[in-house]
Amino acid sequence: MTSEPAHMNPARSFQGLILTLQRYWAEQGCVILQPYDMEVGAGTFHPATTLRALGPKPWRAAYVQPSRRPKDGRYGENPNRLQHYYQFQVILKPNPPNLQELYLGSLEAIGIDTAVHDVRFVEDDWESPTLGAWGLGWECWCDGMEVSQFTYFQQVAGFECSPVAGELTYGLERLAMYLQGVESIYDLNFNGLEGDRKVTYGDVFLQAEQEYSRHNFEYADTEMLFRHFRDAEAACRKYLEAGEPRSGSNDSRHLMALPAYDQCIKASHVFNLLDARGVISVTERQSYILRVRELAKACGAAWLKTEGGGVAA
Amino acid sequence: MPDLLLELFSEEIPARMQRRAAEDLKKLVTDALVERGFLYEGAQAFSTPRRLALTIMGLPVKGKDVREERKGPRVGSPDAAIQGFLKGAGLASIDQARIESDPKKGEFYVAVIEKPGRATTDVLAEILPQIVRSFPWPKSMRWGAASAEAGSLRWVRPLQSILCTFGPETEDPEVVRFEVDGVSSGDATSGHRFLAPDPIRVRRFDDYVPALERAKVVLDADRRKDMILHDAKDLAFAQGLELVEDEGLLEEVAGLVEWPVVLMGSFDEAFLDIPPEVVRTTIRANQKCFVLRDPATGRLANRFILVSNLVAADGGKTIVGGNERVVRARLSDAKFFWETDQKVKLEERLEKLESIVFHEKLGTQYERVERIAALSRELAPVVAADPALAERAARLAKADLVTEMVGEFPELQGLMGRYYATLQGENPSVAAAIEEHYKPLGPSDRVPTDPVSVAVALADKIDTLVGFWAIDEKPTGSKDPYALRRAALGVIRLVLENNLKLSLTSLFAKPFARTASSALFAEFLKAKELIEAIEQSPFAPVVEHPSVSELAGIFRQRQIAEAEKLARIMHVRALDLLSFFADRLKVYLRDQGARHDLIDAVFSLEGQDDLLMIVRRVEALGRFLDTEDGANLLAGYRRAANILRIEEKKDGRAYDEAPDLQIVNDHGLIEEKALAVVLHQARQEAATAVESEDFEGAMRALSRLRQPVDAFFDKVTVNAEDPAVRANRLRLLNSFREATRTVADFSRIEG
Question: Is the ipTM of this complex over 0.90?
Answer without folding.
Answer: yes
